[in-house]
């Protein structure tokens, strides 16, 4: 019998991220407390640029963006927000979206699978994803449950794909 397997990835649905950003921009433009603060949120290449006239307003816009991301099903672990910095009369926050599992986190995940997972489960790091395989599908289900329980400790949002 062939091995069953699945992939552990960290991806963001770009369309959902775009929708969340558009909703946040619309809310910022319509909310009364943002009137006259020149507050905005928009794409700047691959990054999200938040602009306001004070640091508090910029952080409030970031909060609006984060709430829209959560409503759209995007984990806040995928957002990498920089510190607010002044640029002329404006305060800016540059936020980027993190995708892929870096080597250190991949090694940590495979160590968790090796140490705490069922015997006979193999984890292979393949670039920015991890392929987990086993003869038993029940063991794979156990690994998924184990990693979902450990997700707070990890610095990345995980998705499980290609279960076969």
From TrEMBL:
Domain of life, source organism: Bacteria
Record InterPro entries: UPF0234-like_C, UPF0234_N, YajQ-like_sf, YajQ/Smlt4090-like
Keywords: Nucleotide-binding
Gene3D superfamilies assigned to the protein according to its UniProt record, in alphabetical order: 3.30.70.860, YajQ-like, domain 2 (3.30.70.990)
Keyword field contains Transmembrane helix: no
Function, in words: Nucleotide-binding protein.
Family designation: Belongs to the YajQ family.
Protein's name according to its UniProt entry: Nucleotide-binding protein GCM10010910_17690
